[in-house]
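Quick one - first record:
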Amino acid sequence: MSLLMGVDVGTTNWKAAVFDEVGHLVALAKTSAVTHYDERGWASYDPGELWRLVADVIAAAVRQTGSAGGIAAVTVASMAESVVPLDRSGEPVSQVIAWFDTRSLPQAQQLERLLGRGKLYALTGLDPNPIFSVPKIMWYRDHEPEVYAHTKKWLSIADYVNYKLTGETVTDYSLASRTMALNLETGTWSGEILSAAGLQDTSLPEIRPSGTLVGTVTDAAAAETSLLPGTPVVLGGHDHLCGSLGAGVLLDHGVLDSSGTAESLIALSEPGAPIPKEFRGFRLGRYLDPRRYVTWGGIISSGSSIDWALNQFASLTGWGMAGNQGCPDYSEVMAAAAETPPGARGLLYLPHLRGCGAPHWEPRARGALIGLRSTHTQPELVRAVVEGLCFEVKLILDLMERVAGRKIRTLNTVGGGARNAFWQQTKADVTGRTVTVPEIEEATPLGAALLAGLGAGVYGDMVEASRFTYRVRHRFEPVAERQEVYRALFHLYKQAYPALIDLNIGLHDLAGE
């Protein structure tokens, strides 16, 4: 039986996992993602460090299998939007701006002035937002002109890892969709956008379908990763979309809920469906199978809101443990929050710590706790944060139903958040929808491995690959009595963003961010 490796270079962790053909985990190695912050709060990755750490986890996973010879193919999935600048010799010439870093807001606004919001959306399915690759490249042009002048190729994170493995520079449609340079209709780089940004299409990689061959592992890469020279490297894509294969979204027509540092809610079209040209609250993109497009919403600060709440609110004193030092563990915090009444005694949380995603896509939005009283306890504060994330999910899903013209009955949840049963049950209660969690926790590297299997001829297509490997571990159904409470709170929650946005933009401008 063939072994298939999936590499996942995400926002929180960098992983390499090996699976057999029916999706059983054989080996897993991971390390924490290393994000560097400067005094301005700007976030970046060091490309050399990233490659060394990814090579190390690949090597560790290979050692766990006992033999690199059993690995039939390797595929890399990654976060999108960040771009690695390579010079003529193929060496990185600068740090890599993190995908969530918004320093390129002026460049996004300039692009909007040059082409107009409507045209940008009609061409790319995206709004002019600083997270995308083209505004980031424009930022290099304006602030690091030497880097810009010496860059001959801009690669996404997965493309860069593939380049280090094979020496080839290619990308797939799902990652290309997040650059703001892809014409969704034609599936080619948009000359109009590249011209407005001052770029040449030769500075961007060739686009190929996911599941096709990139190249083979070089001798140099083999020495660093313990893979055998000549091992096929198959094209992957966006980490959330690779996760959709492991989550079975192609099988039950649900919506992918990829719950990590950020939370993405992604619905797939039928093959060949026409791509909308007008903005209706969602970003669009090509899927791993480029015959399909994706409707994309999400929460930029999802898991990061949970981390923030734990850091700010979860002292032992607040949990009745004053005699101890430090903080309770994660499970204790969530268990205590689950014991509090739904609604957190009239406390609402607006989860926009890093700006707002769908349907507003406003990077200047800010988070808020509304209704705070001196009598609120730490467990209630944590509950309010969890509930606020779930209200935001319901807001997105309700609008997604209206845009898609179909009912959404199931959320297929993957990622770190899927392990939090209190969070997922609250999501079912708030949204009124079934939440399923797949048996395999590592859905993104599994999805990448399935693409490796597709490229290696193990599976006939993506649907077959999912059918072979998808199994449900947990199913969360809405509880009627809690739904009644949440319906009333959701009516109030919907008023929070419009009530606060002008104030938050003023605060953003005052802070000079």
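second record:
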Amino acid sequence: MSEEKRQIYRESLVKSSFLVGSMTFLSRISGFARDVVFANFFGAGSSTDAFFIAFKIPNFFRRLFAEGAFIQSFVPILNDYKSNKQSELKSFLSYVQGNLSLVLLLIVTLGVIFSDSIIGLFAPGFSSVENRFELSSEMLQITFPYLFFISLTALSAGIFNTYDKFFLPAITPVLLNLSLIVSAIFASAYFQEPILALAYGVLIAGIVQYVIQIPLLVKMNLFVLPKMSFAYEGVNRVIKLMLPAMLGTAVVQINLIIDSIVASLLTIGSISWLYYSDRLVEFPLGVFGIAIATVILPRLSKHYSENSMNDFSKTLLRALKVAIVFSLPAMFGLLVLSELIISTLFQYGSFNLSDTQMSSLSLLAYSLGLPAFILMKVLLTGYFSRQNTKTPVKFGIIAVLFNISMNLIVLLTYLNNPYNGAHALLALATSVSAWIQVLLLYNKLQKDKIISEKIFINKNTISSIISCLIMSIALISLSPNLNYWVNHEYYTRGIFITGYIVFGASIYYLSMKVFKNNFEELIYGNN
């Protein structure tokens, strides 16, 4: 590849990442609006705990079948068919869609039939609170079919991303947020249990999200009717990659589910506090981590299929450097502004000062793991693009076992002597678990000579940390205490928190410039 072509390629990579990141940003903004409505209408209590569990369970499977193991396994094989077996491409898509649909229908049917047992497994503490168990089980029967439609949506997204069409997949999640907002505001009053409206909002969103993919598939001449055969060679290749990849890609989600299981045994509100704080961490994770990983997976798969390992390594290394430089200030910003951000977004209506303080504790703990969550998304592409799913599984098991051990310790100490903030220790265990997995993944890539440079100890990372410390000191010096902050109107809080974020980002950027870090060179590279 000539230098001119390399530069064009790098620019297209950046533009694609920017597009996905921008659309994900809009999705996260609409998600914040959704959560503001949740907090205002329903607060952080028994009914919200019930809904968040009923939503989290199909969402967990979605992470496996959607942007998780399925996509990570499907895209490299699809790329191979696109490059080398064009005549068999539509047959491959037909059988993948048919087999995926069959498996999903089976899972959804079992989920609806055995909703009581599933809630008992994922939220054992619900049985101790009147109506929380029954309400959660009823909502799970409504939300579980969402898994079917959103997974087919993800299949479409994998096709679009392989053909460098990133806009529609990136903007689609906004529809879920809009559906839930409309359900909460306009439909909840028509239910005896108002929060049931959210469960129906989830189901409707899943159907709509899939339907809007169809016109573009038709336009690309890639809309196919499903066929079923697990003997088809391409399907077998996907399954072979996918089964071990489930654990490797879902470690964070498994840890979050474990957090919810243990949190159901803690004080009422723990699940909701974890949900609201996790949502804030999901914002930079989606804008940076998921956006970068989504764009580079097809690129890395292409480099690997062409045996262009030099370009493969450069693409992965640059993605890791960008992830670090953007994730560190996000982490420090959340650490410093945690209470102010949560109060600004959620402390209205049924969401009170205590909920803000408790959610802030878990946000602090999750924030410590934010760079790891983002780096993990990027590092895993370095394995799945090479069709290596076994290594992430081994490291994932280690991370999950660590998290389970820490959660059990927290639970046992809490049951012996209940104390405030136990839920935050669950979040901290998840963050440490993510760092363990990241270090294992990174060290293995170094040993395999896929990554030749040190990404944690270098000029960019050290100057980024120092710049983050300067930014944090500046923000702390300006930030008021929470009691003063909550006395202001919502719009005043919104204006000031936006100003703090812009001010902090500016301080970080200028500090990096002082240390002679050129963002343009970091992103586009000079090699």
